[in-house]
Design a protein that fits this description.
Elements: E1 2-8, E2 11-17, E3 32-33, E4 43-46, E5 56-58, E6 63-68, E7 75-76, E8 81-87, E9 90-95, E10 100-104, E11 111-112, E12 117-121
Parallel strand pairs: 4-9
Antiparallel strand pairs: 1-2, 2-3, 5-12, 6-8, 6-11, 7-10, 8-9, 10-12
């Protein structure tokens, strides 16, 4: 039996892995949670991918726009949170890709697909 430490959502777990190949296997103890170094934040800042044009804020995954953090036409800085995207029961902070005035293409409660342009910053 081999022991490994794996991380799931930033939390380390010690697990034992037994090879099953014709030999009788015995039940192993459940995985034990290792003490975490720091608590994980409830929201995560999501960096935009380079798949869009400069100034485009692209949806990194499918989800629902939970909250708009800026108004249409507002001046924003690069890295400023523009909106909160809920995906897989997680709240993801979507940030500006550049400095400038933001034009929103989405509204609160709207579902988006991966790689959809949610806003532009010019």
């Amino acid at each position: 039996m081999s022991k490994y430490i794996i991380k799931v959502n930033g939390n380390p777990y010690e697990v034992e892995v037994q090879e099953v190949g014709g030999t009788a296997s015995r039940a192993s103890a459940p995985a034990t949670k290792m003490p975490a170094k720091a608590a994980a934040p409830r929201t995560a800042k999501v960096a935009q991918t380079a798949s869009g044009n400069a100034g485009e804020v692209i949806a990194p995954m499918p989800g629902t726009v939970l909250k708009l953090k800026v108004a249409n036409g507002e001046t924003v800085k690069k890295g400023q949170v523009i909106l909160i995207l809920e995906a897989m029961k997680m709240e993801n902070e979507i940030v500006s890709t550049a400095d400038g005035k933001v034009t929103l293409n989405v509204s609160e409660g709207q579902a988006v697909v991966a790689h959809e342009v949610m806003a532009t910053v010019e």
